[in-house]
Amino acid sequence: MEQTFLMVKPDGIQRNLTGEIINRFERKGFKLAGAKLMQITDELAKTHYGEHKDKPFFGELVEFITSGPVLAMVFEGENVILTARDMMGKTNPLEAAPGTIRGDYGMTVEKNIIHGSDSPESAEKEISLFFNSSEILDYSKQDREWIY
Ligand code: RTP
Ligand code: MG
């Protein structure tokens, strides 16, 4: 089943939006397969955002993503990569539609609440960058006699 890497950025944690964000993906129907609160190192930030290393905002981006804890997550489900990007909304919250996470809660392009993988290739790369295989769980939500 398709998996994507999602991350509540430091502003999302500071603004108490963690539960709200998990809630949206769970209620949509996706399954949480891995999660950990972590302080990103400078090295990990630079690797993760390596595609932007020559952009003028790279320094600020690395500084911000390492400024406090983030919640790294793996969510799973059919078409989760593209659907999660739609649910996040456009990069700049000013352009993000109401009803999306960035449209509802984001204020600036730097502090835009959440990161999500943008392709199957980046999802695979980012999941293995942030998680060991033992931290991603394979479990079923069906066949529980105590769910009615
Ligand atoms: P992300 O990687 O964080 O999920 O965001 P994204 O795909 O929507 O956007 P991307 O182009 O990958 O940019 C990565 C992050 O860099 C910051 N950014 N700042 N100052 C600027 O013009 C600018 N442009 C991008 C944003 O925080 C963006 O999420
Ligand atoms: Mg991106």
Provide the spatial order of strands within the biggest beta sheet. 2-3-1-4
The helix/strand class is alpha+beta
Bound molecules: ribavirin triphosphate, magnesium ion
Helix share bin: 25-40%
Average pLDDT taken over every residue:
96
Approximately what portion of the residues adopt beta-strand conformation? Answer: 15-25%
Number of helices: 7
* Beta-strand segment tally: 4
Principal-axes geometry comes out as globular
Tell me the series of helices and strands, N- to C-terminal. EHHEHHEHHEH
Task: List the uncertain runs.
Answer: none
Largest sheet, strands/sense/barrel: 4 strands, antiparallel
Give the terminus-to-terminus CA distance: 25 Å
Our Rg estimate from Cα atoms comes to 15 Å
Can you give a write-up of this model?
There is one protein chain. With 148 residues, this protein is α+β, with helices and mostly antiparallel strands. It is built from 7 helices and 4 strands, in the order βααβααβααβα. The chain has a 4-stranded antiparallel β-sheet with strand order 2-3-1-4. Residues 52, 57, 61, 91, 109-110, 112, 115-116, 118 line the site of ribavirin triphosphate.
Features:
alpha+beta, 4 strands, 38% helix, binds ribavirin triphosphate, 4-stranded antiparallel sheet, nucleotide-binding, phosphoprotein, 7 helices, magnesium, 148 residues, metal ion binding
